[in-house]
Amino acid sequence: MAVASGRDGTEKGPGAAALDSRAWLMPLHAAREDQHMPESTDVPKLEDALRKAGSPHATRRRLLECAAVGAAAVAAGGALEPAGAALAKGGHSSISAFGTVAVTTEALTVTLLTEVLRRANRNSVPAGDLAVFEGAFAAEVDHFRFTRKYWNPTTTKFWIPDAFFGGSGNTLDLTALGKALVAGETLFVNLYLIGVTAFAQAGNGQFARFSAEIAGVESEHRVLAETLIGATPPNNVGFEAFSIQRPQGIETALEGAGVGFGKQGNAAGAFYQLPHPIMAPPIKINSNKPK
Q1: What gap in Å lies between CA 9 and CA 18, rounded to an integer?
Q2: Are 60 and 231 in contact (CB under 8 A)?
Q3: Helix, coil or strand: residue 240
Q4: pLDDT of 47 higher than 80
Q5: How many CA atoms lie within 13 Å of 96's alpha carbon, on the beta-carbon side?
Q6: Phi-psi region for residue 25, left (φ > 0), alpha (ψ -120 to 50) or beta?
Q7: What is the spatial distance between Cα 56 and Cα 226, in angstroms, rounded to a whole number?
Q8: In what order do the strands lie in the sheet with 157-161?
Q9: CA separation for the pair 46, 54 (Å, rounded)
Q10: Partner of 94 for a Cys bridge, out of 12, 137, 144, 198, CB 3.0 to 4.6 A?
Q11: Residue 273 and residue 29: Cα distance in Å, rounded?
């Protein structure tokens, strides 16, 4: 059964007004996708790895083998006026597409981790693992609030497969969750690498660096998730995967795994709503805004 976490009512931050007045920051139609970023042929492999992540028949070795060819794995603060002005200089549709997918998948991740923490409090989860979940939640809330200043999510209601948690209701299987998180965090690292590329091509070094800062945190989360599935070593890549070149491909991979963005997905699961207000992070972390 889904847990009703609250209705959507997020407010736009002060940085959004100037940016939203630029037509190139509006969400794109599929026909206007960036033409110089061809879709990767690895998307089916990413979707397959995500599906297997939650499968009771999957093994860690098989999951890593599926995701290792061309991709390691897959599956989701303050007014910066000078940065906002720099961001508004370009006319790059790829930035609009990236921002929309970024804020939407950050909303998905906050929603997912809210449910993880709810279930963790109803199960016997080791204190160390619980602290990791709480730290990840705090970071993703920071990411959502930052991206929400500049872009609007396409939805705050998500269909999340039961397999990501290891079952329905209050079930929380840490191995199943770990596999889903390894896959998802690899996707999100890929997403922010798309952001680095798009901002660099637009000549906006500041927001390219902001994207790299978030990618670094997502890679930390991936390594921590690897420990849940017993990966040896958990820090098992020399370079992060960049197998999808368009932001829409990130959502495509998630949908292939059963996630639904405002609609029912293709796997057994339930709807979850981004809470409003978002739960206060149980623990504090450092560096809550980009530098």
Answers
A1: 21
A2: yes
A3: coil
A4: no
A5: 21
A6: alpha
A7: 17
A8: 260-261, 157-161, 269-273
A9: 13
A10: 198
A11: 24
119 token code pair: 């279930």
Residues 256, 258, 260, 263: what is their CA dihedral angle, to the nearest 10 degrees? 110
Q: What does the DSSP assignment read for 117-179? A: HHHHTTS---HHHHHHHHHHHHHHHHHHHHHHTT---S-SEEEEEGGGTTSSTT---HHHHHH
Number of Cβ atoms within 10 Å of the Cβ of 7: 11
The torsion defined by the Cα of 48, 54, 59 and 60, in degrees rounded to 10, comes to 80
- Digit-coded pLDDT (tens) for 132-188: 999 999 999 999 999 999 999 999 999 999 999 999 999 999 999 999 999 999 999
User: 200-234 as b/e, with b when 16 or more CB fall inside 10 Å?
Assistant: ebbebebbbbbbbbbbebbbbbbbbbbbbbebeee
pLDDT band at 8 (very low <50, low <70, confident <90, very high): very low
- Beta strand 260-261 with 157-161 is antiparallel
Instruction: Tell me what the mean pLDDT of segment 112-139 comes to.
Output: 97
Would you state the pLDDT for residue 52? 54
If you average pLDDT over every residue of the chain, what do you get?
A: 78
Q: Using the CB atoms, write b or e for 148-175: b if 16+ within 10 Å.
A: bbbbbbeebbbbbbbbbbbbeeeebbbe
Helix/strand/coil percentages in the chain, nearest 5: 55, 5, 45
Phi, psi of 161 (to 5 degrees): -60, 140
**Distances from the Cα of 285 to the Cαs of 127, 136, 141, 146, in angstroms?**
17, 9, 11, 15
Return the closest-CA partner of residue 47 out of 210, 183, 201, 235: 183
From 51, 97, 59, 67, select the one nearest 198 (Cα to Cα).
Answer: 97
Structural domain boundaries in the chain: 16-29+37-273
Contact, 96 vs 22, CB < 8 A?
A: no
* Stated pTM of the model: 0.74
